[in-house]
Design brief:
Elements: H1 2-23, H2 29-36, H3 50-67, E1 74-78, H4 84-90, E2 95-99, H5 103-115, E3 121-123, H6 127-133, E4 138-144, H7 153-163, E5 164-175, H8 179-192, H9 209-218, E6 221-232, E7 237-241, E8 247-254
Parallel strand pairs: 1-2, 1-4, 2-3, 4-5
Antiparallel strand pairs: 5-8, 6-7, 6-8
EC number: 2.1.1.222, 2.1.1.64
InterPro entries: SAM-dependent_MTases_sf (IPR029063), UbiG_MeTrfase (IPR010233)
Family: Belongs to the methyltransferase superfamily. UbiG/COQ3 family.
Length: about 260
C-alpha cells in the first residue's frame, strides 16, 4: 500500500511539473529579446516607441468609456513592456499589477514608476503562471499589442478569462491580417517611415477580428465591442473609429455565472 501511495505521489509531482512546463512554453524568446533591446527607448516619446505614445491616450480613453471609473479596481496589464499603459491606468487610481517576460523592460518600468510616485506591482512571469495564483481576481485586464508576438494567442486569452472576476472586462488590441495592414505596418512603418525597427511585425501572426472573436468566445467570454485605431495621414494622428482594417481593440466581458 505504501509503495502504491508513493508511486502515485511521484506521478502526481511529475504530472504537475510537466503541466507547468507546458504552461510556460507559450514564449517566443526572439520576441522577448526584441523588446528587451528597446528598454532604453520605452519612455522616449520621439524614439522607437513613439507609436505607442501616440496611441496610448486613445487606449486609455476607450477603457474609461467602457469600464467607467477605475478607482480602486484591480487591473492587470499583460505584456506591459516599459509600463506606458500601466502608468496611465495607475494614474486613474486603479490598483495595477503588470507582467512581462523582458527583465530589461521591467527594470525600466519599475524605475520610471518610482520616479513618478506610482505604486505598480511589476512581475516577471507569464499570464499562464499568474492565473495559478490569482484566479477570478481582476476587474479589468488589458493585453495590448502582444497577441501577435506569441506562439499561442488563445492560451493568453484563456488565462485572462480565468483571471477575471464575474462581469470583469478584457481589452485586447492587435493587428488585422490583410494586405492593407501589411502595406501600412510592415512596408510603411518599418521600411519607409521607420517608425518602428525592422522586423517588429510578422505578417503571419496578425489576427483577423473573426479569429479573435472566436478565441474569446471559446474562452467563455462575451464580445461587447470592437473598435479600430485609424491612422490619418494628413493630420499625422490616430483616431478611434469603426474601421478595423489595421489596428483594432476588442472588449469582452466575463459572464456573471462563470
Amino acid at each position: 500500500m505504501l509503495l502504491i501511495i508513493s508511486s502515485s505521489h511521484i506521478l502526481h509531482k511529475i504530472f504537475t511539473s510537466l503541466k507547468r512546463i507546458v504552461m510556460t512554453q507559450n514564449i517566443d524568446l526572439n520576441e522577448i529579446d526584441k523588446f528587451a533591446k528597446l528598454a532604453t527607448q520605452w519612455w522616449d516619446p520621439n524614439g522607437q516607441c513613439k507609436p505607442l505614445h501616440i496611441i496610448n491616450p486613445l487606449r486609455v480613453d476607450y477603457i474609461k468609456q467602457q469600464s467607467g471609473d477605475l478607482n480602486g479596481k484591480k487591473v492587470l496589464d499583460v505584456g506591459c513592456g516599459g509600463g506606458i499603459l500601466s502608468e496611465s491606468l495607475a494614474k486613474l487610481a486603479a490598483n495595477v499589477t503588470a507582467i512581462d517576460l523582458a527583465e530589461e523592460s521591467l527594470a525600466v518600468a519599475k524605475l520610471h514608476a518610482e520616479q513618478n510616485g506610482l505604486d505598480i506591482n511589476y512581475l516577471n512571469q507569464t499570464v499562464e503562471q499568474h492565473v495559478e495564483q490569482y484566479p477570478a481576481h481582476y476587474d479589468v485586464i488589458t493585453c495590448m499589442e502582444m497577441l501577435e508576438h506569441v506562439p499561442d494567442p488563445f492560451s493568453i486569452i484563456n488565462a485572462c478569462a480565468k483571471l477575471l472576476k464575474p462581469n470583469g472586462q478584457l481589452y485586447l488590441s492587435t493587428i488585422n491580417r490583410n494586405n492593407k495592414a501589411k502595406l501600412m505596418l510592415i512596408y510603411g512603418a518599418e521600411y519607409i517611415a521607420r517608425l518602428v525597427p525592422k522586423g517588429t511585425h510578422d505578417f503571419d501572426r496578425f489576427i483577423r477580428p473573426s479569429e479573435l472573436m472566436d478565441w474569446v468566445e471559446h474562452a467563455h467570454l462575451t464580445v461587447k465591442d470592437i473598435i479600430g485605431m485609424e491612422y490619418h495621414l494628413l493630420s499625422n494622428q490616430f483616431r478611434l473609429g469603426r474601421n478595423v482594417d489595421v489596428n483594432y481593440i476588442l472588449m469582452a466581458e466575463k459572464n456573471e455565472s462563470d
